[in-house]
Design brief:
This protein is mainly alpha-helical. The chain folds into two domains: about 1-50; about 55-95. It has helices at about 5-50, 50-55, 60-90, 95-100. Keywords: Membrane, Transmembrane, Transmembrane helix. InterPro entries: Enod93. This is Early nodulin.
Length: about 120
């Protein structure tokens, strides 16, 4: 059974905090952009289209805009967390797993696989 040092745990905790902060910032940026990108056509359509004017009240407009912003936040944050986890797992991998070049078996490719 292996023991884990306190310094190692502190280092991993600091890395996790930094990654979560980066993901939060990426999500907030995406939510801000998505809010503007969804608010402009939503508010414009309510003013110009008779159907939208009759059927989408202010609560519905706010719901449309906030749903888009929330989805953008979570999608961007999730993508950032996954990319950081992939990068850090590759950095901590053993050297024999880092060599991702394909050596092949030395056989020629079939005609439909030739580059």
């Amino acid at each position: 059974m292996s023991t884990v040092s306190r310094a190692s745990l502190d280092q991993k905790l600091a890395l996790a905090k930094r990654c979560s902060q980066e993901a939060t910032l990426a999500g907030a940026k995406a939510a801000a952009v998505a809010t503007v990108a969804s608010a402009v056509p939503t508010l414009a359509s309510v003013r110009m289209l008779p159907w939208a004017k009759a059927n989408i009240n202010p609560t519905g407009q706010a719901l449309i805009i906030s749903t888009v912003a929330g989805m953008a936040y979570f999608i961007a944050a999730d993508k950032k967390i996954l990319s950081l986890a992939r990068r850090h797992s590759f950095e901590e991998a053993p050297d024999h797993l880092k060599n991702t070049s394909y050596q092949g078996a030395g056989r020629p490719h079939p005609a439909f696989f030739r580059p």
